[in-house]
Amino acid sequence: MWNGSSVRDNVPSQVNYPKGLLAGQVAIITGSGQGIGAECARLFANEGARIVISNIDPVRGQQVADKINASGGMAVSVPGDLLKDENITNLVKAAAEFGHGKIHIIVNNAGFTWDAVIHKMTNKQWDTIVALHSTVPFKLIREAAPYFRVKDGEPRNIINISSTSGLHGNPGQLNYAMAKAGMAGLTKTIAKEWGPQFAVRANTIAFGHIETRLTASKAAGAFVEVDGEKIALGIPERQMQTVGDPSAFLDIPLRRPGSATEAAGAILAIASPLSSYITGQTISVTGGMNM
């Protein structure tokens, strides 16, 4: 009952947030050798999770695992191209061994863009991006099903990473937009199939402009290889916006791009027990863009 004191008088001087939000859980994070995935791995490890680093580049993946282990966390790197089915099988097997027979979290984060306007997009561009951003997450979830369809009282969580391109479309990114749009349907179906009996939560996070190699200038030289072909990553220099430019980021109410740490923080928030009653949702993390 209110006793006449001000609201401010009733606010504690220090708020103590819970520690170890993911204590004892085993998390597979794909594409975690750099960028959002690496930050997600670091934040999850800080909250007590055992991290399975999945990355196509074994050196980058091992570097992330080494940093986590050196800081007192627990991580293992399981490299491999997830477009190859045997690497998905190996990833789940290794994760279950690392987790002593349990897997609690999957973050489907791996991917890149391979852009072209509709009439110039090749079958290879279409097939590769749709497979990487839609088929690979499905196959990984299917492979890990025995570790999620369980009734042991422990939380299970799947987080699929999408994009505003999937929500609103984007010129030059039909393949990426198509694949990312599919994440919402994948997520809702998981929530409806595995929620009632097994209490599995599934959510999609759609990112806007986050500072990664995909939103850096192409002049920076980042690339990936697909069957020996180098695919340049990033945004053409003429389309780049500069933070100091008064016209920059006018479509974002916060007037800036997000950082990889901020993006990873959103993933942690949804994975944590603080979001235990959130499932089947697509959550936009965009600085207010497209609202």
Fold and architecture overview:
- It is an enzyme of class 1 (oxidoreductase).
- Residues 25-213 form the Ketoreductase domain.
- Pfam families: adh_short (PF00106), adh_short_C2 (PF13561).
- This protein has helices at 35-46, 58-70, 85-98, 123-143, 145-148, 164-168, 174-198, 260-271; strands at residues 26-30, 50-54, 74-77, 105-108, 156-163, 200-207, 223-226, 229-232, 282-285.
- It has 291 residues and is α/β, with parallel strands linked by helices.
- The protein has one domain (21-214, 260-285): 3-Layer(aba) Sandwich (Rossmann fold), CATH 3.40.50.720.
- The protein has a seven-stranded parallel beta sheet, with helices on both faces. A two-stranded antiparallel sheet has the order 7-8.
- Helix 1 (35-46) crosses helix 8 (260-271), helix 3 packs parallel to helix 4 (123-143) and helix 4 (123-143) packs parallel to helix 7 (174-198).
- It is globular and about 50 Å long.
- It starts with 25 loop residues before the first strand and ends in a 6-residue tail after the last strand.
